[in-house]
Amino acid sequence: MSDKTHVHQATASVEQRVAAIEAAFDDRGMKPLETVKELERLADDQWVPQNGARVVARAWTDPAFRQRLLANGREAVLELGLSMPPHHRHLVVLENTPTLQNVICCTLCSCTAFTLIGLPPDWYKDLEYRARVVRQSRTVLGEMGLHLPPEVEIQVWDTTADTRYMVLPVQPPETVGWPEEKLAGIVTRDSMIGVARL
Amino acid sequence: MDGIHDLGGKEGFGRVRYSPEAQAFHAAWEKRVNALYSFAVKRGIFNMDEYRHAIERMEPRHYLSASYYERSLTGLATLCVEKGVVTLEELQRRAQGSFPISAPSAPGRSNVPQRASFQPGDRVRVRIEHVPGHVRMPGYIRGKTGIVVGESPTYPFPDAHAHGVGAVDEPTYDVRFRAEDLWPHSADPALVHVGVFQSYLERAD
Asked: How many Å apart are CA A28 and CA B85, to the nearest integer?
């Protein structure tokens, strides 16, 4: 006997599904639009890697700040007018050296210090990076263009709680003496994730 | 749950599709869904642990084939239905098509009663537990031994917070493992650090 109640329906497009949720919110008087627009603006303009770059440049030029940053990252970034969401209760800054490369990931989802280093790029959230970087760190970094000499130790940090991590890259020697603003201009998002050196 | 989301150390995946210019968003709907789930969190419809768990409960084939923001969308929709904000029928009517959501949740749990405090330098072992609900212990450290290198402030306990179960906040410890201990003879040498909730840990001798 055929099951006449079971109707196969094609899956709605992602755009239609997003619009359905927004319309349902709107229909209930929840007025999502204003907040959604503000959150989209924050994603575009405020949660950008230039924030973290300023932190790195300050740490390179101000040894006392560097110590405060390494001791309590969350407090230290406030000095630059930067902040983290309330649920990110702790920021651990990981200092690279010529013989140490730190790299961050989130194997379970996509956690990052997004208010400082920007919303994570697509590859950070992809299955390949999440699955492989903890187990094949040197291989994966090499495939991504970071070929580390054997004497460089790799330390991976898997963001499995609401503590956040950011990498403090090594300052290129030729930039010593540069003004802070110019230094901030050379700091990339990927160097603060730890998949690139400067 | 030992879900499909728990990817750390899984083999068979290819090269990271990396570009230094990679963006966070590729389409307007992605930015919109990211803002909509943040809106729902701000409204108190659900918390971040519930949100993460709703994504983990996606049907595995759907999880693996969906883009990151389709997973966000599915977690958001699942919780809106489960919390009674909207029915699945209404969402499907509005979307004019099928709207896949996640499987129901197993029960959560509160903190482990016997919890020890640790100091940097302490040797700890990750308890061998299989938690049916939400848990933030990646499977690759289960039963493994490492060294505490840091302690966080206290956080809501995810295993409880994702399920509306009462619990006290507890710290996480950054625990250092050797990749060689996690995957003997089968990993690139490295030190791998994981933020581990106090309830997941016991002292190692």
From this structure: 9
Average pLDDT score, chain A: 95
Number of Cβ within a 10 Å radius of residue B88: 16
Whether A82 and A64 share a structural domain: yes
Residues facing residue A100 across a β-bridge: A97, A153
- Cβ distance of B17 and A22 shorter than 8 Å: no
Query: What range defines the domain where residue B147 resides?
Result: 123-203
pLDDT at residue A2 in the model: 46
Q: B117 in a domain, yes or no?
A: no
Please tell me if residue A5 touches chain B, with a CB cutoff of 8 Å: no
This model of the complex carries an ipTM of 0.97
Closest chain B CA to residue A27: B86
Do B144 and B173 sit in the same domain of this protein?
Answer: yes
Same domain? For A85 and A133 the reply is yes
Reported in sequence order, the residue ranges of chain B that DSSP labels E, i.e. its strands, are: 123-126, 145-155, 170-178, 191-197, 201-203
Q: Report if residue A4 sits inside a domain.
A: no
What's the confidence (pLDDT) of residue A8? 72
| Interface contact A6, partner B, CB < 8 A | no
Query: Is B188 in contact with A139 (Cβ distance < 8 A)?
Result: yes
Residue B39: inside a domain:
yes
Task: Count up the domains in chain A and report the number.
Answer: 2
> What is residue A9's predicted lDDT score, i.e. its pLDDT?
86
Of A2-11, A48-57, A148-157, B95-104, the poorest mean pLDDT is in A2-11
